[in-house]
Specification:
Blueprint (H helix, E strand, L loop, with lengths): L8 E7 L3 E8 L4 E8 L9 H19 L6 E6 L7 H11 L6 E5 H7 L8 E5 L3 E6 L5 E5 L11 H18 L8 H10 L4 H10 L2 H5 L2 H6 L5 H25 L4 E4 L7 H10 L6 E3 L4 H10 L6
Parallel strand pairs: 1-4, 4-5, 6-9, 9-10
Antiparallel strand pairs: 1-2, 2-3, 6-7, 7-8
Helix pairs in contact: 1-2, 3-11, 4-9, 9-10
């Protein structure tokens, strides 16, 4: 692999449940390299197994980065991050041979917001494995709607879409066994899972991590053009995301809204349903999130997320 040398490189990390993306940027904002490893969450720090998995993922990421060049500053956004990052900061600093003062951690949504807006400018609605709406005011105060985790809500995110699909499929099987064979969505879902037996769905939902479950939403979205039930689910996902935006609008007043995140890109009906549920006068835009790139550029300029 080609090595890159410069006086200053910023490493940006955007860690989500499905994938952890990284980028290296130079001071002028040029992206030197970028890549991705397995998903991770700061919530993994609550168990020994989770800490081991997180360390393994970060070790792999840092090795990929070190093969390219040596960062001088790191800015990482982690899903589930609650503010106590001493152990994670120390881990990244050790893996990259940096002083802990050169490693900054924050919530992944803070970085995603900076990828879309200046402080106070608008509202970000982000749909990945989970979902959240955020506004960072001009003083740096973080205001949210949603983002409570997949067990409580996270309506409109990939996990929610996957769970809704399996819930509907198995309710129909309760009422009419074998009906899945006439449902394009059920066929796509069971093909993704590797079988139509309840035991396969059970083991998937109760044995896999949230990111893996969230990726099942791909199969649901792929069936939305041929299965009315799948279309209804992705449309309701858009309505759930609109609810998050409206919660912030009601609290803080109208501002432009950006919809981002991989789940938001699964099917055009998600954005269309969200747009239909919001006031026509509201400026709504959909964009491809590049939070890891934004973080890398901020790190290269040594600008922490505050």
């Amino acid at each position: 692999m080609t090595s890159f040398s410069t006086d200053r490189l910023g490493l940006g990390i955007d860690a989500g449940g499905t994938q952890t993306r990284w980028a290296l940027a130079s001071v002028d904002g040029s992206i030197v390299a970028e890549g991705a490893v397995e998903g991770l969450s700061a919530l993994q720090m609550s168990s020994a197994a989770g800490r081991t998995a997180l360390q393994t993922t970060f070790t792999k990421l840092c090795q990929e980065v070190s093969d390219i060049g040596q960062p001088t500053q790191v800015l990482a956004g982690l899903t589930g991050f609650g503010g106590d990052g001493a152990m994670l900061t120390g881990l990244l600093a050790e893996l990259l041979a940096l002083d802990v003062a050169n490693v900054s951690l924050g919530n992944d949504i803070e970085i995603a917001y900076r990828d879309s807006f200046e402080l106070g400018e608008g509202y970000l609605v982000y749909a990945g494995t989970g979902s959240i709406a955020a506004w960072i005011d001009q003083d740096g105060g973080f205001h949210r709607a949603g983002g409570r985790g997949v067990l409580l809500d996270d309506g409109g995110g990939g996990y929610w879409i996957a769970r809704e699909a399996l819930r509907q499929i198995w309710r129909r099987e309760d009422e009419c066994p074998g009906s899945w064979q006439s449902s394009p969505m059920a066929e796509a879902v069971f093909a993704h899972l590797g079988g139509s037996d309840w035991s396969v769905s059970r083991d998937f939902m109760y044995g896999q991590d949230r990111g893996t479950i969230g990726r099942l939403a791909l199969a649901v979205a792929a069936a939305a053009d041929t299965d009315p039930l799948a279309l209804d689910i992705v449309q309701r996902a858009g309505q759930e995301l609109a609810r998050l935006a409206l919660a912030l609008i009601d609290r803080y007043g109208p501002r432009p809204v950006v919809l981002a995140g991989r789940a938001a890109q699964l099917h055009p009906a998600i954005f269309a349903a969200m747009q239909a549920a919001l006031p026509a006068s509201l400026a709504l835009q959909q964009k491809v999130a590049r939070a890891h790139v934004a973080a890398a550029r901020l790190a290269a300029r040594s600008q922490p997320i505050t």
